[in-house]
TrEMBL record:
Identification of the protein by name: Universal stress protein
Family per record: Belongs to the universal stress protein A family.
Domain UspA stretches: 1-144
Classification lineage: Bacteria, Pseudomonadati, Bacteroidota, Flavobacteriia, Flavobacteriales
Classification via Gene3D superfamilies: HUPs
One Pfam family named in its UniProt record: Usp
Organism this protein belongs to: Gelidibacter maritimus
Length: 278
């Protein structure tokens, strides 16, 4: 089945890292890749003081850059089943992404973790955080700068078993199916410490994953969750971290935390954020 992949770009190296990763991950799959650019004023209040003669060349320049990104991707791809399109909009990044997802039936969004001006001390670029918070229509794969593609054979999925996700797990199982990867479910606490509800959800998850290579891992709870997950990623050579973004989830806490000193995985592997379906 043809996949529809959206790759927003700001023409930075990080945005191209995300594009290259997407091309590599779906190298053998029929895909249409949509490169999008949202042109907007950083300060909307300044719009009335700037003439159209100043704006028009900027718009034309960004359209040329978008066409160059598409041409670069076409050159990079070796799959005749890959198609490439561009989407140019005037408005906010979040609006552009949401409209594109609806119009083109997008399955997955690939983004860099930093933009052209991303500060190193922050966990994610401000645009990326805003997209995670506001765009809940499809999963988002966050790709670190200079991330070299390695076929993912190990996927990590932290869960507290407080709920059963069902359909929300589809992006993870589809990814595992495509790459033949093992899904490593991580729970920070011992199995003996599960409540009745958690145990029910654990059993349901076991049944849900029965047709996929998977493991359940009970991790110590005497340290910060970020450290425990980071250590597991390093020790088990995990290639992609996946999380479901729901209220009070670990990913929600991460994107509220500006300093990333504790998150060793932040600059090494892609991070698939899946919106919770209500």
């Amino acid at each position: 089945m043809r996949q529809h992949i959206l790759i927003p770009t700001d023409f930075s190296d990080n945005a191209w890292s995300a594009a290259r990763y997407a091309l590599s991950l779906y190298a053998d799959e029929p895909c249409t890749f949509y490169f999008s650019y949202a042109w907007t004023f950083l300060n909307s209040g300044a719009r009335t003081h700037i003439s159209q003669s100043y704006i028009d060349p900027l718009i034309e320049k960004s359209k040329e850059q978008l066409a160059e990104v598409k041409a670069r991707a076409e050159k990079e791809s070796t799959n005749p089943e890959h198609k490439f399109e561009t989407i140019y909009t005037v408005g906010s990044l979040e609006e552009c992404i949401e409209v594109s997802i609806k119009k083109h039936n997008i399955n997955l969004v690939f983004m860099g973790t930093k933009g052209a001006t991303g500060a190193k001390k922050y966990i994610l670029g401000s645009n990326t955080v805003s997209v995670i918070n506001k765009v809940r229509l499809c999963p988002i794969m966050l790709v670190p700068t200079k991330c070299e593609f390695v076929k993912p054979d190990q996927i990590a999925f932290p869960s507290d078993f407080s709920r059963f996700f069902g359909e929300d797990l589809l992006p993870i199982t589809q990814l595992a199916d495509m790459t033949k990867a093992t899904i490593n479910v991580l729970h920070i606490k011992s199995k003996d410490g599960l409540t009745e509800t958690q145990n029910e959800n654990f059993e349901r998850l076991k049944t849900h994953l029965k047709d996929y290579a998977h493991t359940f891992n009970w991790l110590p709870s005497n340290r910060a969750k970020a450290d425990v997950i980071s250590d597991f990623i390093k020790e088990n050579n995990v290639k992609i971290l996946t999380m479901i973004n729901y209220e009070h989830s670990f990913i929600e806490n991460i994107i509220k935390e500006p300093i990333i000193k504790k998150l060793g995985f932040k600059s090494k592997i892609p991070f698939l954020v899946i919106p919770r379906k209500d």
